[in-house]
Specification:
The protein is of the alpha/beta class. The protein is built from 17 helices and seven strands. The structure holds zinc ion (ZN).
């Protein structure tokens, strides 16, 4: 992966390249960014640049023997650690058990979703993690001599999924690193990384993609008119994975964006407000069909709608600059926003977050959504004053 093939984050790229030019590569770095920001791809591009035998001013060459191996993620001095799942055959899984499918997963796109990865490993409901046995592997690999490049690079994707004993062993390695070793931790949840690890790593903040960057990415794969792409980029709010999914799911009716998420959201709000139980039960059946990953997208979507409606309610002027909504969302929100106010916005958002974390933990989805719908029915009736 080379920098020029990754959209956005131009300043970060320059900063990373500069660390190599002035020989100030910090040995432990934490790449932090939202889902769909391209942080793993940037981490790999950085490592590839460091190891490239024929560096150009602003990127790796892409064709030298080192780059050739990086392009396939098979360079002997490049190591990956990532969450894995236990299976009937693998009771103590490590990253190397899944390395082939991992390479395929990483190379198919610049954007990587944790849930996609779980699905790709064939996990139905077991939770992924970086387990204790992985730390032995890490120590073993880093004690090897470098084969071909000056640096050994270890990229730890979703470093927040490390269990505590693996994290403590990693901490020791970061405190006393083997020579010429670079750790790149990649995460979406800075708060779930051990404080002691965080304080010993250099934080690299990967930005959300801008609307223009999202549109230019979407144009590579989708033929849709500018209005639709603009709507999608606003909804995606910097998450390229969400933008791609919305583009695929967009129904092009009457020239606007119509997504299943919008329909589900409006149904939930109307029926919860009316305490229409039969309609809510029907709604739950619809949500259950989405599957875990899309349920998560729906919750993200609902959180955004709640937030935007709250902004609309508190803002004096309903200008485009304040509210990031697509056309039909705006029509709905013009009537809906008075119902989202300071007395219920936090309750509603917390309930959504709670449901998301229960879904992550594989709680029974219909019960979670029923519980949420009933609470919404109560919260939406809270008076603004
Ligand atoms: Zn090269």
């Amino acid at each position: 992966m080379i920098f020029k093939n990754i959209t956005g984050n131009e300043l970060i790229k320059k900063r990373l390249i500069d660390t190599v030019k002035i020989n100030r590569i910090s040995h432990a770095q934490l790449f932090l960014g939202i889902e769909g920001s391209g942080k793993l791809a940037l981490a790999i591009a950085y490592a590839q640049y460091i190891c490239c035998k024929n560096k150009k001013e602003d990127d790796a060459c892409g064709v030298c023997p080192s780059c050739n191996k990086y392009n396939k993620l098979i360079h002997p001095d490049l190591h990956f650690v990532f969450p894995v799942v236990k299976t009937a055959k693998l009771t103590k899984p490590i990253s190397d058990d899944f390395i082939k499918v991992w390479r395929e997963f990483v190379l198919k796109s610049n954007y990587h979703s944790y849930n996609d990865w779980l699905e790709m490993m064939g996990s139905d409901n077991s939770q992924g993690g970086i387990f204790t046995q992985e730390s032995q592997e890490i120590i073993k690999k880093l004690n090897l001599k470098t084969y071909e490049s000056e640096y050994k690079v270890m990229i730890i994707w979703m470093a927040d999924k490390m269990n505590i004993s693996a994290a403590n062993k990693l901490l020791k390695l970061i405190e006393e690193p083997p020579p010429k070793t670079l750790f790149i931790l990649v995460t979406e949840n800075e708060g779930e990384i051990l404080t002691t690890i965080r304080s010993r790593t250099q934080l690299i903040k990967i930005s959300r993609l801008t609307d223009d960057e999202i549109i230019s990415e979407l144009k590579k794969r989708h033929e849709a008119d500018m209005n639709i792409l603009t709507d999608i980029s606003r909804i995606a709010n910097g998450n390229m994975l969400l933008a791609e999914r919305l583009a695929v799911e967009t129904v092009r009716d009457s020239g606007g964006v119509n997504t299943i998420y919008f329909d589900l959201f409006t149904k939930l709000m109307r029926n919860a407000f009316a305490t229409n139980i039969p309609a809510l039960l029907e709604w739950i059946e619809e949500v259950a069909k989405l599957g875990r990953e899309r349920q998560k997208f729906f919750i993200d979507y609902a959180l955004r709608m709640i937030r935007e409606n709250f902004v609309m309610n508190t803002a004096k002027e309903h200008t485009d600059k304040l509210v990031y909504l697509a056309n039909q969302e705006l029509d709905f929100s013009k009537k809906f926003h008075p119902y989202i106010h300071k007395n219920n916005v936090i309750l509603l958002s917390e309930e959504l977050n709670e449901t998301a974390s229960n879904i992550e933990r594989n709680a029974y989805d219909k019960i979670c959504f029923l519980d949420m719908a009933l609470k919404f029915s109560k919260y939406l009736k809270i008076k603004p004053q």
